[in-house]
Structures are given as C-alpha cells and as structure tokens.
Amino acid sequence: MQTMTLREVKVGKTVKVLKLKGEGAVKRRIMDMGITKGVEIYVRRVAPFGDPIEVTVRGYELSLRKADAEMVEVE
Amino acid sequence: MGIRIALAGNPNSGKTTLFNVLTGSNQYVGNWPGVTVEKKEGTIKKYPDVTVIDLPGIYSLSPYTLEEVVSRDFLVGERPDVILNIVDGTNIERNLYLTTQLMELGIPVVVAVNMMDIVRKNGDEIKIDALSKSLGCRIVEISALRGTGINEAVDAAIDAATAGVKPTPAHTFSGVVEHALAHIEEAALHDMPSEQQRWYAIKLFERDKKVIEQLKLSDEVIAHIEEDIRAAETELDDDSESIITNERYIYISNILKNSYKKKNAGKLSTSEKIDRIVTNRFLALPIFALVMVAVYYIAVTSVGTIVTDFTNEVLFGKWIMPGVASLLKSAGAADWVISLVVDGIIGGISAPIGFAPQMAVLFLLLSFLEDCGYMARVAFIMDKLFRRFGLSGKSFIPLLVSSGCGVPGIMATRTIENEKDRRLTMITTTMIPCGAKLPVIALIAGAIMGGSWWMAPLMYFVGIASVIVSCVILKKTKMFSGDPAPFIMELPQYHLPSIKNMLIHVWDRVWHFLKKAGTVLFLCCVVMWLLVTLGFEDGKFGIVAQENSIMSIIGGVISPIFIPLGFGFWQAVAASLSGFFAKEAVVSTIAIFVGLVDLGQEDPELWGAVMALFPSAVAAVSFLVFNLLNSPCIAAVTTLSREMNSRKWTVFALVYQNVFAYVVSLMIYQFGSTITGDVSFGIGTVGAIIVLSVMVYLIFRKAPIKRMSAKKSNPARAS
User: Fold this and answer.
1) Do residues B246 and A20 touch, judged by C-beta distance below 8 A?
2) pLDDT score for B38
3) What is the pLDDT of residue B99?
4) How far is CA B125 from the centre of its chain?
5) N or C: which end of chain B has fewer CB within 10 A?
6) Among B62, B93, B710, whose Cβ lies nearest the Cβ of A32?
7) Quick check: B536 and B554 in contact, CB under 8 A?
C-alpha cells in the first residue's frame, strides 16, 4: 500500500487514515470530527469550483478544504 | 433553589427542538454578558422550578471555537445540576465523542438518544441497555420532533440531579496515559473536589491553554506535569491531544460493536440523491440562483409587497394616521401635538413596521432553507469563490440575507466560527443595498434620468464591489489578517423542518424587530421631528420654518465636510442623518424639503424638484452612493453593536463604513465632475487621485502574512 494525503484521493475511493500531520486548532478540529488514525474515509465529491471536498466518515457527511485534507495521511 | 438542566450536544442533534417542546411559550432569548453566542434559558412547563439551558451545539469541549468555549465555561464554571446530553441516533458514533467528554466533568449526565423514529425507519438498531452499561449513565430514547420519550428524559434528568450521583466515566485511557493523569491529579489538582479532578487532569494533559491559565499553576508544577506528558507522547508516538482524541474514538467504536447494528443499506439515501443534483458540477450554481430568485420574488415582490403595501398605505396611511389625527383634533389637541404624533411618531414608525410582513416571509423562507440543510450546501459550493477575498463560504449567507434587511443579515453571521471573519462580514454586509434603500435608489434614479431600470442593479453591483474591496483591504490589515477560517463543516442530512419550529423562529425575529420599532425608533422619530420643527426665529425659540430649524443649523455646521462630495448643503446632510433612523427616511426628508410631501416617489414633479436641489447629476449619484454605503440604519447599528459585543469594534465598524462611503463618493464626484466638465481640475481632484492611489495600493499590496503558515508570525513585519 502506498501512502498519500487525503487531498490526492480520487472521488469514489475509500481509504484508511494512517496519521495526521500538523498541530493546533485545525488538526484538533479534524480529529474532533472523527478523522482519526485507522478510520475509513470515503471521498464522495468535490465542490463545483474544485474545492472543498465532501467525505463520508463514521457514517456522516463532512466537508473540508483540500488544504486541510493535506494534513491527513492515508493508504 | 430549583434544578438546572443543561442541554448539551452536537449541532443539529435536536436540542432546540427539545428545548421548545419542554419550555413551550415560556422561552425567552437572553444574551449573557461576555459572549456573542446565544444561550437560551427557560422553565419546564410541567415543573416550574426546573430551569433548562439550551447551550450552543458543539462537537467537543476543545478550547478552539467560540461555541465550545461558551458551552464549557458554562458547564465547568456554573456547574448545572445535570447535563441532558442529546445524541443524534442517526449519527451516533460522532455524537458519543462529546458524551465521553461530558462524562468527565463530574456532573450527573443523562443521555437522550434523539431521532429514534428515523433510526428504526432505517432499520438500524441501538441496544440501549448495553450502551447504558458501557457508558455508565442512564440512556433514554426520544424523538423531539414527534414528542415521544420526552417526559421520561426529563424525569430521568431530575432523578439524576436529585440523587446527585456523579458519573464515573466507564472508559479509561491506555496505561501510560492513565499513569500521567494520576500524576497530574496528585501534583496539581489535589485541592479540587475529587469528581472535578479528572476533567482538569485530561485538559492539563492536552496542554489546554485556557485551563492552564485558569489554574495558575506554578512553573515548577507545569514542568513536572510536562515530564509525564512527554513520557506518554514518546511511548505512543503522537502528541497528547491526538492521543486523547484517538483513544476516545477507539473506545466508542468498541462499545458500539456490541450495542449498535447498522442495516447496511447499499442503496442511495435520499440526501445523497438530492446532493447529486444540487451540488452537481454544472447544476449547482443555476439551482442556487433559481432558489434565491424564488425566495426574493416571493418575499419582496409578491407576498411581501402585498402585505407591506397594505400596512403602509391602507393600515397606516388610510386608517391609523387620519384616525389618530381626527381623534386628537376632536380631543382638542394643539396642532403641534397632532403633527408630532401623526407625522413624527406614527409616520416615522409605520415605515419600518410596514417591512415586518416582508421580513417575516423572508425569514420563513430562509429559515426553511437553513433548517432543511440547503444552506450548508450553499456554503460548500461558494467556499472557494469567497476565499479569494478572504472570507469563507459561510459569509455568503449573511450577505444574501442583507439584500433583504441588514438586521437579520448581521444576525446570520453567528454561524461563522472565526471571530475575525465574523466581524469582517458584519462590517461589510450592510453595504449590500437592503429593501429600505430601494426607494432612495428609485428617487435619485428618477431625478437624474427619469428613472432607469438599470440604476438598481448598478447599485447592487456597487454594493457587492464595495464588499469585495473592503474585505480584500481589511483582510490585509493586522486586525483581520490570518489564515482563512477553516472550513470543516458537517453536511447534515436533509429533512423537512417542523412548521412549528420555523414559526417560533420567525416570530422570535419579527417580535424583536417590532419591539425595536416601539422603543429605539420611537425615540428617534420624536427627536427628528423636534429638530426639523423647532428653532430660533426673530430671537424666539419655537416652531419655525425649516430653514431656521435646529436641524438646518446642525446641517449647516456639518455640510462643509460634504462640499468635496458635491452635496455640501444642509438639506442633503439632514436627509443623510435621517437615513440613520431608517434608510427610507432619506426619501421622505427630501420630499419635505422640496415641499411635495404628498407626491409618490415616482412622480416626475418630485424628480424635477429633487434635481433642483443638487448642483449636478454627478452630485446626486455621489449623494446616493454615500447613503447606500455609509453606516446602516439605527436598527442595524443596534444589532451590530449587540452582536459585536464590543464598543471598540462597533465604533470601528461605523467609522470604517462612513469613511469608505465618503471616499467612494469623493472619487465619484471628483472624477465624474471633471469628465462632465462641471468642476475644473483642482484640489478636490488631486485629493481624489491620492485617495484612489492609496486604495489601489491597499488592495494590491502583498498580504503581510503568508496564507498557509501554520505558526503565528508577526503581521507587522512585512508591508
């Protein structure tokens, strides 16, 4: 399995979170919303202007910007 | 003393629905000092001595967002007798994350699993007994929307509060973390009541700055604690905050394995089907435009106007005003009393009240869009576009609402988490021409060129351009700079809002508006009338001709300031000043000055007379733009000051709005007049050129802070 960031994942793919980079409020927020080590994320769609993205995590829909998705390392 | 129940839970989990069911018509909306986010308090219908507090919806007790800080300050500082934790049963995993944190506060917790009707309809299963056992607290199934299980939930909460049994969190962290927590409790928290120690210990472990500040620990103790934290971090190869978050979610996944069964439906949910269309690459924007046009068409043009016209022309114009006038006359009241009451007070208040039905319809439609889940999608669609001028997608909603009225527009900024972005949106949002500015536009457009249809759209464009320019300029200053607010937002499932809740919502806002009309506006009307009516004539103080009124004196003093803008005469100043009470008052004040009160705003005779007031067409446009962009009416200013909750920021907003309006009008008049030849090149033109260059510089200068830098940098460094 090769590693990449959530930003690079194609729409319609499911990935598993390896770890979160960075620190501070944004990272905490992402984790609070349920994106933590080991969880599965399904990339649902990209907004019409190309950013942000919508993912399904822990059974609900979450939107986050590509810049923030870059903090999430997945496989 | 009675029992205080705090309703806590994720946003959108149904707390407010439950709150309204519990308190019925007893609710009131109160602002606590020092907070900008609303908490609601009410008493339960069945038990008058039980108080319910509806806290802002939160995902976590982290110190990062305003709502979270407000909620946790309340829970930790005020310590309610019991927490009724509302959990969305359709989204149980993430909702329980907050539950694990609430359990640590040392306050009795009762969990109410909401939306059980939908859970069952989906064919999912939550084993309440098993879950209750694993979590270590009482769990009740409810459906706030349908009103089932609510009595049981309240009774359980009251029981828990009376028994006062403090929960012992059933979940524990991994060995090394627990070891560190025990050390922290011993080193720093042994003076504290034992049930509160755990929460503080975990916060200290997370290096929560607000808690460290609050506890005023000595450096020695902090250094000692730091050793334990480091040890745990090294062993688990992660930072302490992530360790805690991770372990919470792992714990939740584990307990849900035994107590939750999701019927794995492979078919698309209804929400997903709707989203496929409304957030579609090609359809998203056309659909959004259509929705908005429909909202404004219904609210402003069709339904709203019918009711508003009725209120203004028939209810006030034909019934109340003549009625009161003849009533006063027959009672033998003096002419000046009749004039004060009828022209001053009723005339002044009726215009804004006339807008109430329009606002009600607009609020109803917007609250439908908000409640059903579409607004979240709009923010999702528009985020990228808005980030270009330094705002997040969430700022779009207030701007939109402001095209109806600035008051709800400013209130709608509450959904923006980032305080800087919120302030920026509040300062700029009233630059969008609101409904009350339309008559002003119509009047000036008529005066200049006999009423052109494109004047109103042009002014909307000026408004939008002003918002964008202001955001770009302000975002680059120290006060507003910083990374764009994160946009990590839940896209909730679509659902049909309950009509009752929508009506409560609308009534709440409209009532607020009407109350203001009866208080602030009432006072303003009296003052304005007095200023235009009273003055000195022949050395005596009394009722005088307008030219000698106090207003003309005040206007005369201020008017030189506006000479560079082309309208340095006292009538224009007075009209602008009356615009602070209500924007449409600009029109009525001008009409009084030209002595044609009874004419409609569409009357060519009025247009001609108005044009005669202004030295040139460019001056009239400059006057119009100034009145569109300057600080909003008193109702909006009061809302602004309440929402800013800071005198400094309110003053800044007002100063900025007026300076910006002045500067834009200056450029319009000076450049425009030079082109038309009304004014020859002079000091004014030079001034305008300087202003323009400064503005261009402020727009295009490099942002002092690099966008994506995560660490704090010194904004004063670069320029």
Assistant:
1) no
2) 62
3) 94
4) 38
5) N
6) B62
7) no
CB atoms within 10 A of CB B338: 18
- Answer for the pair B383, B397: CB distance below 8 angstroms, yes or no: no
Q: Which of B97, B246, B488 sits opposite A37 (nearest CB)?
A: B246
E strands, B414-570, are 489-490, 534-537, 540-543
3-class state of residue B54 by DSSP: strand
ipTM of the complex: 0.95
Name residues whose C-beta falls within 8 Å of residue A1's C-beta, 6 or more positions apart in sequence: A75
**What would the DSSP string read from start to end of B387-456?**
HTTT--GGGHHHHHHHTT-HHHHHHGGGG---HHHHHHHHHHHTTS--GGGHHHHHHHHHHHHS--TTHH
pLDDT by residue (tens digit) across B369-428? 877 888 888 888 888 888 887 788 878 878 877 877 788 788 778 767 678 888 999 999
Name which of B285, B350, B343 is nearest B315 in CA terms. B350
Averaged pLDDT, A42-53:
91
CB contact under 8 A, A47 and B710: no
Query: What is the predicted pLDDT for the residue at B657?
Result: 96
> pLDDT value at position B425?
92
Count the neighbouring beta carbons within 10 Å of the beta carbon of residue B118.
16
Burial class (CB in 10 A: 0-12, 13-18, 19+), B676: exposed
Average pLDDT over residues A35-51: 92
Angle of helix B240-259 relative to helix B175-188, nearest 10 degrees, comes to 120
Q: Which two tokens stand for residue B500?
A: 């009752």
- Give the total residue count for chain A: 75
**Distance of alpha carbon B543 from alpha carbon B537, whole angstroms:** 8
- In whole angstroms, give the CA distance from residue B50 to residue B32: 19
Q: Rg of the Cα trace of chain A?
A: 11
Check pLDDT > 50 for residue B31: no
**Those residues with Cβ within 8 angstroms of residue B1's Cβ, 6 or more apart along the chain or in another chain:** none
Among the partner-chain residues A26, A61, A62, the one whose CB lies closest to the CB of B486 is: A26
Q: Which residues of B touch A20 (CB under 8 A)?
A: 242
Strand order in the sheet with A4-5: A4-5, A72-74, A14-20, A40-46, A53-57, A60-64, B489-490
* Closest residue by Cα to residue B625 from B480, B439, B499, B444: B444
Q: What tokens were used for B149? A: 């299980």
B366 vs B312 pLDDT, higher one: B366
Q: Does residue B601 register a pLDDT over 90?
A: no
